[in-house]
Amino acid sequence: MKKILIIDDEEKLRALLARMISLEGFEVLQAADLKAALKKLEQSDVGVVLCDVKLPDGNGVDFTITIKNKFPEIEIILLTAYGNISDGVQAIKNGAFDYIVKGDDNNKIIPLLHRAAEKVELTKRVRQLEKQLGGRFSFDRIIGKSKILQQAIELAKKVAATDTTVLLTGETGTGKEIFAQAIHQASRRGNQNFVAINCSAFSKELLESEMFGHKAGAFTGAMKDQKGVFEEAHNGTIFLDEIGEMSTDLQVKLLRVIETGEFIKVGDSKTTNVDVRIIAATHRDLLLDMEKGMFRQDLYYRLSVFQIKLPALRERVADIELLAHHFMNLYSARTNKKMNSISPEFLNILKLHTFPGNIRELKNIIERSVILTTTNQLTADTLPIEIQVHEASVTAGKILSAFDLASAEKIHIQKVMNYTNGNKTEAARLLNIAITTLYRKLEDYKIS
Question: What domains does the chain contain, in order, with CATH numbers?
């Protein structure tokens, strides 16, 4: 039930208002002065305050500031016996929802209360959504407890509070965009736009238009003016992924934006000003690219004011189990499966894998395994065959090498089984072995 606090030193009027408001379904609290009112606000989850302007220990117009500072979501409606324009204007400036005259505006009180209560509920919902959205992109979203990952997170948290340009380096699939989003969310620009663009996804001409926008008629097909991502990110953050793929011509224009906050749209003659924070990322060795003349030295030093190297997954093996469980829960929910565990053998095989595709590869492996499994546990037989060859040999107590004859045979049998869609008779015919031999090998290699 929505709570209303009435603050008025006239007891009879206060009681009358309380009865009238309670009939509308509100829970009503009462206070005769500001001191008592403040105590009730601290003790109860009040949504709307109905407050007299003149009270024994203060003024309702001034008290509005106190309420808004301590409880910004509360809405205040001020009541006065003698209304005047200056008080009304000041009340609204101080954050009051409305300012009405007793007697003359009695018929407005109930509709006003409902509108104010609706605004409070809407504000609470928006705040909750913002909190949930912030949680989606916060540092808490980065999964892992390994020392090398935590060091990268600590660096990111420190630079987030500044407007410093950040360069994220590391192999493909290490989570550079997630780090960029977390840095943005923790910054003073967190409630503004975060705009990402992959520099490797466009040709030089298209990338310039995507970044800076264009004027109508600038090129064939440019039928109207178009904003670029720098304008979309004004007052926020722009994430330039795969910055190493950008042409040297565009690098010059990017350098100008960093230095002056200005750029010229394609087909335009005047400059556009923006205020953006730049986070760039690359999997390339930009120092080597500089030596080859593929990346500008001046741009590199502008971008790498604060550089964070993200570790490859093979450098943080301790995090594989946490990530595997996270992705299992994610995809079991999406596929409506009740998964609750991962077999030790499954995890051991993952920990032996080098993960050239890093977290993105692990994510895909878990999604595939969740789809394939018919039980509530992820087991080794649902792993891709190229990963299964690294499993520990039960009989020999060693790791099967990719060069082992047994490994090669297992891979070949699995491929043939996949080709025949599990038809063992057809697989035995193609392998030119007896069906009983195939059954024995399937059992030995744990191929289902």
Answer: 3-133 (3.40.50.2300), 139-311 (3.40.50.300), 315-444 (1.10.8.60)
